Amino acid sequence: MDQVLARMAELAREGDYALAGEEIDAALAEEDAAHTARKIRLLDSGIEAALLDDNTARAADLLIRKADLEAGGKAALEDLRMLFFA
User: Fold this and answer.
1) What is the rounded distance in angstroms from the CA atom of residue 54 to the CA atom of residue 50?
2) pLDDT one-digit tens code per residue, 1-27
3) How far is residue 29's CA from residue 7's CA, in Å, rounded to a whole number?
4) Which of 59, 24, 26 minimizes the C-alpha distance to 43?
5) Which of 9, 65, 70, 76 falls between 20 and 30 A from 45, CA-CA?
6) Digit-coded pLDDT (tens) for 63-86
7) Taking the complete model, does pTM exceed 0.70, yes or no?
8) What residues does each domain of the chain span?
9) Could you give the CA distance from residue 69 to residue 67 in angstroms, rounded to a whole number?
């Protein structure tokens, strides 16, 4: 993050505000992707633990949360159907 902010400051000093904004947008997208990947790993671990505990209600809840996350909002019925046939 410090590198991105330093690069942005450098570009701003040079007057290249558009490129500075693009640098921020790229860094934000990278952060979002990393955050989503971490959440998916946590959800996968929770699903596995729930199934091992024979807690199908919790596993189903976590599967839906994972589908919603992967869909970028609320998963469509087809997304949920794919959970059972994947």
Assistant:
1) 6
2) 788 888 888 988 899 899 988 989 999
3) 16
4) 59
5) 76
6) 999 999 988 888 888 877 877 676
7) yes
8) 2-85
9) 5
